[in-house]
């Protein structure tokens, strides 16, 4: 089938499918290692998958994880072409372990079979020729979803992860990117554009709740694009998509999702291993039905108090535990404040024994035990906690 | 050079355990020159608003010191 000539492009490198396929046929595979470039990571990942090696995807940001970095040599698969690479990926027995954003202090591991990871990937002639803006962290679920959607259709990935606004805009234009999938935070940082981008045909949002203003801005900036909302999670991968705020339960998922007291629950068969042992997994996401036929719904809020910071879920209780373990901190309250860049920004009010400890010392201590996105960006030293305060300082 | 802006930037830098900056000019790029990521930019906007009463993000994304100063001039 006709595939694009390039597999991957970033500001300094471009690699063709022919070249990539030669590289993954043989050589060393690292089962758990953090890589300095996305291309090295992708090469190791796909090489591992077609050789049926189980892999743990290490994000350099994960603390307290010590990858062994031991390399294993694998047999040369000989002359591969695009179709045989796709067959090898689809039939791989590899188990892929990824990390959730830490909801209980340390990030949790979830292991997926490859078939689970590519469950929602669609391949057809309709998907040929796409050029994807690759905006997600490649070691996380959303990044894997985009990777497989692109790779299995012979599409090109243009790496935008961590790039500044001006380079994202010029790469979208220079490489005539047609498909883009990213978090609402990514789009809020990108818009408004100086001039509309007419090459984008599909713009998807996922990972956080989006809002109607953002959707309107996307329509103006990308006038030729279909705007999609995607619901996916580290635990289950992609589940639903929608072209507005209402999601539709597809027939093959009817038996595998259910709603209890408006909360979305997912059947264990859709989940990676390492999750809870119950038959149904409660997501904590609350939904509202459009009408009585129970097919269309929208997400309204989270059941618990998790704060979404730029797509990372933060549990305020975890941070309070860390703060309270600091000597001279008497009491504290951690909460999210709505923020146009991150969706929410983590803030803390603390009561201290004496003034000999300041905001910067506390942040320094927190850096030892928390991820960057979990650390309160503003720490206010107060006389007493105003727990009854409403409005933006109130934690939901 | 707006000292309140300098102070706010250095509070962000100190919070990350990074050395403070002494000088900048209108062309100084927040991400490329000062190494501020999206978390830092979010914090910076809050700190500048506390010091000046101006939401520098109100009219869109800010990338350089010059853009901050322009927002402060038009907002105050």
TrEMBL record, chain B:
PROSITE patterns: CARRIER. Pfam families: PP-binding. Residues 1-76 form the Carrier domain. This is Carrier domain-containing protein. The lineage of its organism: Bacteria, Pseudomonadati, Bacteroidota, Flavobacteriia, Flavobacteriales.
């Amino acid at each position: 089938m006709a595939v694009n000539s390039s597999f991957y492009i970033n500001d300094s490198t471009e690699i063709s499918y022919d070249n990539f396929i030669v590289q993954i046929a043989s050589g060393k595979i690292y089962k758990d290692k953090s890589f300095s470039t996305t291309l090295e990571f992708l090469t190791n990942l796909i090489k591992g998958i077609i050789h049926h090696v189980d892999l743990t995807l290490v994000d350099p940001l994960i603390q307290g994880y010590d990858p062994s970095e031991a390399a294993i040599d694998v047999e040369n698969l000989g002359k591969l072409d695009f179709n045989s690479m796709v067959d090898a990926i689809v039939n791989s027995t590899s188990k892929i372990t990824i990390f959730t954003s830490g909801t209980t202090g340390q990030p949790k591991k979830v292991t997926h079979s490859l078939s689970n990871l590519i469950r929602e990937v669609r391949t057809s002639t309709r998907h040929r020729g796409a050029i994807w803006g690759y905006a997600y962290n490649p070691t996380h679920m959303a990044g894997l979803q985009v990777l497989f959607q692109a790779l299995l259709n012979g599409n090109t990935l243009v790496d935008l992860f961590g790039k500044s606004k001006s380079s994202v805009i010029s790469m979208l234009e220079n490489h005539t990117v047609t498909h883009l999938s990213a978090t609402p935070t990514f789009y809020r940082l990108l818009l408004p554009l100086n001039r509309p981008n007419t090459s984008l045909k599909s713009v998807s949002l996922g990972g956080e709740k989006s809002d109607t203003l953002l959707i309107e801005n996307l329509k103006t900036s990308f006038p030729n694009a279909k705007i999609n909302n995607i619901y996916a999670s580290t635990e289950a991968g992609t589940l639903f998509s929608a072209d507005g705020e209402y999601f539709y339960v597809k027939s093959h998922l009817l038996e595998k999702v259910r709603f209890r007291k408006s909360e979305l629950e997912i059947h264990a068969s859709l989940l990676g291993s390492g999750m809870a042992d119950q038959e149904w997994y409660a997501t904590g996401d609350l939904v509202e039905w459009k009408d009585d036929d129970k097919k269309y719904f929208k997400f309204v809020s989270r059941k618990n108090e998790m704060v979404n910071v730029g797509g990372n879920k933060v549990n305020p209780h975890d941070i309070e535990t860390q703060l309270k373990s600091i000597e001279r901190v008497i009491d504290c309250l951690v909460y999210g404040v709505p923020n146009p860049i991150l969706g929410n920004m983590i803030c803390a009010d603390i009561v201290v024994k004496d003034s000999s400890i300041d905001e910067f010392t506390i942040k320094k201590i927190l850096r030892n035990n928390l991820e960057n996105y979990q650390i309160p960006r503003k720490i206010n030293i107060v006389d007493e906690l105003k727990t009854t305060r409403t409005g933006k300082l109130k934690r939901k | 050079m707006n000292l309140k802006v300098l102070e706010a930037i250095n509070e962000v830098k100190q919070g990350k355990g990074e050395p403070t900056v002494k000088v900048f000019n209108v062309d100084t790029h927040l991400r490329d020159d000062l190494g501020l990521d999206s978390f830092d930019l979010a914090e910076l906007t809050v700190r500048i608003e506390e010091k000046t009463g101006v939401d520098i993000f109100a009219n869109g994304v800010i990338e350089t010191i010059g853009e901050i100063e322009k927002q402060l001039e038009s907002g105050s």
